């Protein structure tokens, strides 16, 4: 497809330690179109951030190692690029907003210098021109340009996150990766940052991968959603598919564990158990030990993504062999929630 920005196929990433071989990503595949936002959703340790770091070939090595797969960015396989070629891609074609804005900024450089640094490197501007661009970027994210000469400790958490966004967008990237961009922020500031990001995505005509465990954030900003569990995508589709036509038991469990304003007296229904140890994954479906629908067959083989409804053209796919039984249906769908 000519309109693809990113095409990941069969990505496998391990962390090889003295004690064990940690299987962080176990065959993830997905595509991202131009001007599209994809949400990667799942619990801590599901492999979301490792997948994102792989796109930039930034998996820390050692102990991390990309074992197999391909990551094609705008027609070029990132995993085959030299270090020099990768440095031209990072920050220029692909930018990343890291998880904690409090620690993502250099405390001994002004915020203007930090924004200007990537512009100088990638666009070969003079220091003065780069600083002017930095001021423009601060204005764009709602910060007065005269604050370009202030240091990170002089900003609040929400303002720091805006600075990090300004750094990421300074070179007008094709793809923005946002790793839990609202985690450390209070609810009011979260809403402001999300609104800012939505507007900037439209203005810059770029694509975005949003990594989060917050389904509310996903509903607010994402076109497509991939639900990740134990290093695999278990369900993928449009936001409408995932929210209104849920098909995987794990996705159902995520929704059931959310507070429901319509049923205030109801108890929360958390998913029982814990995510499996990635260095010792169970046989077959990794979710089977926690799944209320699991049968003996679920531990026999790893389920592969299949189109929902049985049509090969469906964008909505689920990795659950319970659908071998044509009568199988999640409780959520039976209840019409």
Task: Please outline what is shown here.
One of its GO terms (cellular component) is plasma membrane. With 337 residues, the chain is of the alpha/beta class.
**Uncertain runs:** none
Using the alpha-carbon principal axes, give the shape. Answer: globular
Number of domains: 2
- Named at the architecture level, the CATH assignment of the largest domain is 3-Layer(aba) Sandwich
Structural class by helix and strand composition: alpha/beta
The name of the CATH superfamily of the largest domain reads P-loop containing nucleotide triphosphate hydrolases
User: Which radius of gyration do the C-alpha atoms yield?
Assistant: 21 Å
Question: What value does the average pLDDT take?
Answer: 90
Any idea of the CATH topology of the largest domain? Rossmann fold
Pfam families: ABC_tran, oligo_HPY
GO cellular component, one term: plasma membrane
Organism: Candidatus Onthocola gallistercoris
InterPro entries: AAA+_ATPase, ABC_Ni/Peptide_Import, ABC_transporter-like_ATP-bd, ABC_transporter-like_CS, Oligopep_ABC_C, P-loop_NTPase
Summary keywords:
single chain; 337 residues; Rossmann fold; eight-stranded mixed beta sheet; nucleotide-binding; translocase; ATP binding; P-loop_NTPase
